[in-house]
C-alpha cells in the first residue's frame, strides 16, 4: 500500500448536490404555499393581538431562509455512498405505503399477513412454506394483543 | 396557592418517598416490569435504537392511565438501553449510538469467553449509576422547576425557540442540515386547529388535519418505519450467538475490584453530561471511556477486553439517560431524540411537562421519578434471571422479527386516532425520513419542531399581547437575555471552534509535509 493511500482519508462520500437542491426547492415551494394560503385565508391580527395567520407567516419566512441556505450549501453537501437496492426498496415501500392505504378496506389481519409475508420473503431472499405459517401466527398474535390485552379494535 | 406551596415545600427525599408510596402499588410495579421487559426485547433487535424502539412501543401504552403509561415508557427507556448493550457485547452490533463504546471492550471480552461477566458488570454498573442518578435527580429536578415557575412568555419564548435552534444546530452537521428540517417541523406544527383562536389552519378540507398531524404517526413514521425500511432493504443475516448461563454472569473478584471505581466515575460524568443538549449520552460514554483509559485499574488491557472500559461507559450511559430527563420534566424541553419520543408519550396521555408539572401533578412527577428507581431494580432482576431468554431472542431470525415490528407499527399508528389517514402520513414520513437520513438531513429537528412549535407560537403571541405589541419585550427581560446569549454562544461558538480546529490541523499537516529548509 502506498504512502499516499495511507495518508488520504478513506472516504466513501459522494456529492449530494442534486438532492440538496431538490430539498431547497421543495422547501421554497412549501414556504411560498404557506405564505400564500396564510395571507389569503387567515386573520393576521395586529402586533398587540396577533391572529392565527401571524405565526405561519413567520414559519414561511424561516422555511424560505433555511431553503436558500440549503441551496447555497448544496455545493458542499455529501452523503455516504451506500447503494440502494432499488428493487427491494420499491417492494418495501409498496408494502409499507400499500399496507397503510389498504388497511381500512381489507382489514388488519389481511394487511399484516400479506404484507408480512412479502417482507419476510424479501428479507429471507426466497419463498419457503414456513414464512406464511410464521406470519399467520405473528398476525394473529399482534391482533390478539390489541383486541384483548389493549382492548383496541383494529379494522 | 396552598397546594402549590405544599408541593414546593416538599423536599427531595419527601418527594421521592411520596413517589415510592404511589409507585410501589402492584399495578405500577407490574407496569415497570412490563416496560423493562418490552424495552429489553426491543433493544435486542440489532439496528433498533432507543428512539426507534420507544417510537414503536409507544402505542402499547395508550390503554394505561397517564402515570402507568409513563412508568411503562420509562421502564422501556432503560430496557432498550440494556438490550442495546447486550448486542454490543455478544454480537459487536450496538443497538444504539451510546452502546457503540460498550463494544470496544465488551466484544473482546465475549471473544475470550467472558461475555457472562461482561454482561454482569454492565447490569451492576447500570444499576449503581442509574440509582444514584435518580436520587440526584430528585434533588435537582424540583428546584429547577421551582426556579422556572417565575418565567413569563419572554423567557419561555427564548427557552423554546432558542432550545430548538441550538438542538438543530448541534444535531445537524451543516447549517441547513438541521435548520431546514426544523423549519419543516415548525410547519407541521401549525397544521390544524389554532390553539388560541380555534381557527382551522392549512387543513385543505381534510377532516383529519384539523386535529393536527398525529404525533404518533410522526414519531413512528420518521423514527420507526424509516429505520425499519433501511434495515429491510439492506438485509442483514441473523447472527450466530453462543449459549450463556445465568451463573456465568457473576463477575469475578478481580472484575469487581477493577470496575467499582468506574461505576462512580462513569456515573458522575454521565449525570453531568446528561444535562446538556444534543447527543450528550453518546458523548458521556466516549468521555468516560477516555477517562477509564487514563485512570482505570486495568487500563493496560484497553482494546483487549478491559472491564473498566466497559463499566465506566455503561454507568455513564445510564446516569446520562436519567439526568437528561431533568430538562424534560422541569422545563418541558427534550434535549435528545429519545426524550422527544418521551414527550410524545406524555402528550399522548395529555401531560405537558414543564415547571407547572410538579405543582399541578405532583403524584405524576414524583411517581415517575420513583418509578425510574424501581425500573432500575426491575432491570437488574430481569437481566440476571432472563439472560438465557435474551440470548435466545437474538437467535430469532430477522425475517420474523422485522415484519412483526412493521405490523406493530401499523396497528399502533391506527389505534391512536382510529385513522387510516395517519397511517398514510406515517408511510410518507417513513419514505421522507429514509431519504433525509441518506442525504444528511437530521430527522430529530422535524419531530422537535412539530412538538415544540405550538409552544413557541403560544408564548410568542401571549408575550406580544402582554407587551402591547412591543417586540423588544422578548429581548429585554434579564433571564431571557441570558438565555439568548447562551443560545448565541452555542450556535456561533461551535462552528468557530470547529473552524479553528480544522485550521490548526491543516497548518500541522502542511508543516509535517514541508521538507526542512537546507541549512548552509
UniProtKB/TrEMBL annotation, chain A:
Transmembrane ranges, per UniProt, are: 20-39, 54-72, 93-123, 129-150
Q: Which domain of life is it from?
A: Bacteria
> Keyword annotations for this protein?
Membrane, Transmembrane, Transmembrane helix
Q: Which Pfam families match?
A: TctB (PF07331)
Question: InterPro entries per the record?
Answer: DUF1468
Instruction: Show where the DUF1468 domain sits.
Output: 23-155
Keyword NAD among UniProt keywords: no
Query: By what name is this protein known?
Result: Tripartite tricarboxylate transporter TctB family protein
Q: What is the lineage of its organism?
A: Bacteria, Bacillati, Actinomycetota, Actinomycetes, Micrococcales
From TrEMBL, chain B:
Name the UniProt key words of this record, in alphabetical order: Membrane, Transmembrane, Transmembrane helix
Q: Which Pfam families match?
A: TctA
Source organism superkingdom: Bacteria
Q: Can you give the residue ranges of the DUF112 domain?
A: 29-448
* Transmembrane regions listed in the UniProt entry: 20-45, 57-81, 118-140, 147-168, 174-192, 213-233, 269-291, 328-352, 364-384, 396-414, 420-437, 444-461, 473-494
InterPro entries, per database record? DUF112_TM
Q: What is this protein called?
A: Tripartite tricarboxylate transporter TctA
Amino acid at each position: 500500500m502506498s504512502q499516499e493511500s495511507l495518508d488520504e482519508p478513506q472516504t466513501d462520500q459522494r456529492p449530494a448536490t442534486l438532492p440538496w437542491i431538490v430539498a431547497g426547492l421543495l422547501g421554497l415551494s412549501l414556504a411560498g404555499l404557506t405564505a400564500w394560503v396564510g395571507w389569503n385565508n387567515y386573520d393576521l391580527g395586529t402586533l398587540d393581538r396577533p391572529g392565527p395567520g401571524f405565526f405561519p407567516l413567520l414559519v414561511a419566512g424561516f422555511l424560505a431562509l433555511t431553503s436558500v441556505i440549503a441551496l447555497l450549501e448544496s455545493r458542499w453537501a455529501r452523503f455516504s455512498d451506500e447503494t440502494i437496492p432499488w428493487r427491494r426498496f420499491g417492494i418495501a415501500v409498496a408494502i409499507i405505503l400499500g399496507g397503510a392505504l389498504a388497511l381500512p378496506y381489507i382489514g388488519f389481519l389481511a394487511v399484516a399477513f400479506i404484507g408480512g409475508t412479502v417482507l419476510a420473503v424479501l428479507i429471507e431472499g426466497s419463498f419457503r412454506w414456513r414464512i406464511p405459517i410464521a406470519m399467520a401466527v405473528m398476525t394473529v398474535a399482534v391482533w390478539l394483543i390489541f383486541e384483548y390485552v389493549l382492548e383496541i379494535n383494529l379494522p | 396557592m396552598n397546594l402549590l406551596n405544599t408541593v414546593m415545600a416538599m423536599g427531595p427525599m419527601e418527594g421521592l418517598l411520596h413517589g415510592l408510596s404511589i409507585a410501589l402499588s402492584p399495578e405500577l410495579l407490574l407496569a415497570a416490569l412490563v416496560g423493562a421487559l418490552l424495552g429489553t426485547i426491543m433493544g435486542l433487535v440489532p439496528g433498533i435504537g432507543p428512539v426507534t424502539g420507544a417510537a414503536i412501543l409507544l402505542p402499547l401504552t395508550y390503554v394505561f392511565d397517564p402515570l402507568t403509561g409513563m412508568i411503562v415508557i420509562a421502564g422501556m427507556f432503560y430496557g432498550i438501553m440494556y438490550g442495546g448493550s447486550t448486542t454490543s457485547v455478544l454480537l459487536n452490533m450496538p443497538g444504539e449510538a451510546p452502546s457503540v463504546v460498550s463494544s470496544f471492550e465488551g466484544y473482546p471480552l465475549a471473544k475470550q469467553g467472558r461475555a457472562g461477566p461482561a454482561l454482569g458488570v454492565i447490569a451492576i454498573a447500570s444499576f449503581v449509576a442509574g440509582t444514584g442518578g435518580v436520587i440526584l435527580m430528585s434533588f435537582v429536578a424540583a428546584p429547577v422547576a421551582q426556579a422556572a415557575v417565575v418565567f413569563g412568555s419572554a423567557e419561555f419564548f427564548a427557552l423554546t425557540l432558542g432550545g430548538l435552534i441550538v438542538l438543530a444546530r448541534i444535531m445537524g452537521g451543516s447549517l441547513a442540515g438541521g435548520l431546514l428540517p426544523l423549519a419543516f417541523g415548525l410547519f407541521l406544527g401549525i397544521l390544524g386547529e389554532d390553539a388560541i383562536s380555534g381557527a382551522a389552519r392549512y387543513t385543505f378540507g381534510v377532516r383529519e388535519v384539523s386535529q393536527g398531524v398525529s404525533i404518533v404517526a410522526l414519531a413512528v413514521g420518521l423514527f420507526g418505519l424509516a429505520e425499519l425500511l433501511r434495515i429491510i432493504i439492506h438485509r442483514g443475516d441473523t447472527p450466530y450467538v453462543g449459549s450463556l448461563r445465568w451463573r456465568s454472569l457473576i463477575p469475578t473478584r478481580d472484575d469487581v475490584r477493577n470496575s467499582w471505581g468506574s461505576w462512580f466515575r462513569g456515573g458522575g460524568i454521565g449525570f453531568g453530561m446528561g444535562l446538556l443538549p444534543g447527543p450528550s449520552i453518546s458523548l458521556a460514554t466516549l468521555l468516560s471511556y477516555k477517562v477509564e483509559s487514563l485512570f482505570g485499574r486495568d487500563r493496560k488491557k484497553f482494546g483487549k477486553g478491559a472491564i473498566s472500559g466497559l463499566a465506566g461507559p455503561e454507568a455513564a450511559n445510564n446516569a446520562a439517560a436519567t439526568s437528561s430527563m431533568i430538562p424534560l420534566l422541569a422545563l418541558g424541553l427534550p434535549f435528545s431524540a429519545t426524550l422527544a419520543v418521551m414527550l410524545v408519550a406524555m402528550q399522548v396521555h395529555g401531560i405537558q411537562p414543564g415547571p407547572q408539572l410538579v405543582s399541578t401533578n405532583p403524584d405524576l412527577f414524583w411517581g415517575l421519578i420513583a418509578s425510574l428507581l424501581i425500573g432500575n431494580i426491575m432491570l437488574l432482576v430481569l437481566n440476571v434471571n432472563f439472560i438465557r431468554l435474551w440470548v435466545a431472542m437474538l437467535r430469532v431470525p430477522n425475517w420474523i422479527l422485522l415484519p412483526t415490528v412493521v405490523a406493530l407499527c401499523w396497528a399502533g399508528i391506527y389505534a391512536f386516532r382510529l385513522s387510516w389517514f395517519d397511517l398514510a402520513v406515517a408511510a410518507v414520513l417513513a419514505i421522507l425520513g429514509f431519504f433525509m437520513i441518506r442525504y444528511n438531513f437530521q430527522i430529530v429537528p422535524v419531530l422537535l419542531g412539530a412538538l415544540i412549535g405550538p409552544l413557541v407560537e403560544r408564548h410568542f403571541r401571549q408575550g406580544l399581547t402582554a407587551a402591547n405589541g412591543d417586540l423588544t419585550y422578548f429581548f429585554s427581560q434579564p433571564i431571557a437575555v441570558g438565555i439568548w446569549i447562551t443560545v448565541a454562544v452555542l450556535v456561533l461558538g461551535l462552528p468557530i471552534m470547529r473552524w479553528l480546529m480544522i485550521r490548526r490541523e491543516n497548518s500541522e499537516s502542511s508543516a509535517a509535509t514541508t521538507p526542512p529548509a537546507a541549512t548552509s
